[in-house]
Structures are given as C-alpha cells and as structure tokens.
Design goal:
Blueprint (H helix, E strand, L loop, with lengths): L1 E4 L1 H8 L6 H13 L3 E5 L1 H14 L2 H13 L3 E4 L3 H14 L3 H13 L3 E2 L3 H7 L11
Parallel strand pairs: 1-2, 1-4, 2-3
Helix pairs in contact: 1-2, 1-3, 3-4, 5-6
Length: 137
Amino acid sequence: MFVVVDASVWVSRLVAEDVFHETVKQWMVEQREQNVEFVSPFLLLAEIGGAISRRTGIPALGLDAIQQVEKLPGVRLVEMDNALLQDAARLAAELGLRGADATYAAVAVRLKLPFVTLDADQKAKAKVKVTCWEITK
C-alpha cells in the first residue's frame, strides 16, 4: 500500500517543536507497521530543506533533514517530468491550488493513491480529485 504525503506532514514529523509532531510521528510509525510506503514528488526535498532551514535559522539542519528523508526505508520519490508538471498546472488552475500543492495532488491523481496533508486548504481542494486520509491521534 502507498500514500502520497505532503511536505507539511514531513516537516511536522522532522521538527520536534511542531504542534503536530507527536501525532504525525505516531501515525507514520503505525503506517510503516502496516507496510504502507510514503510517496512524494522530488519537490519534497526542496520543501523540507527550505522549511526547516527557515524555521530554525540553521541551513545545516535543512540539509540534514533532506539526507534523513532520502535514507528512510519506505519512502519513494517520484520524478517530476513534463507530463506530471502539466497535470499539476491543470490541477492548480482547476482547483485553485498553489503550485507546489498541486504537484503533490497530481502525483496522487496520476498514481491513483490516497493523499495526506496537514494543510486544510490543500486538502479541501484536493479531495475533489483524490481520496484524502486523516492523521488522527
């Protein structure tokens, strides 16, 4: 089983001070125990690196986060080819999604996978096209 995971979930998982950190950590552990693999576009690496560097003010922590995610078992990063980016552009226009948000939704639509995000706006818009999972305690 696979699920497309947005950067908001990953950043929460990687930043211990994040309000959703423990909930996301537990959810991810439970998913892995059920052999669920996490899928994201390669864009994820830029998003988590930048977000963690901005939050902490320490670029090295952003780089460390990138390396951590790249080495994790059960993580699949999807190449961002022209077709995927065209799909993302259409979803952005059709659903009013931000560009990066549309890229994650496009991966879920293309691969016919469920999608999980902590971004309420992204979820509300994406659920028109994909099944969205909840992260619960």
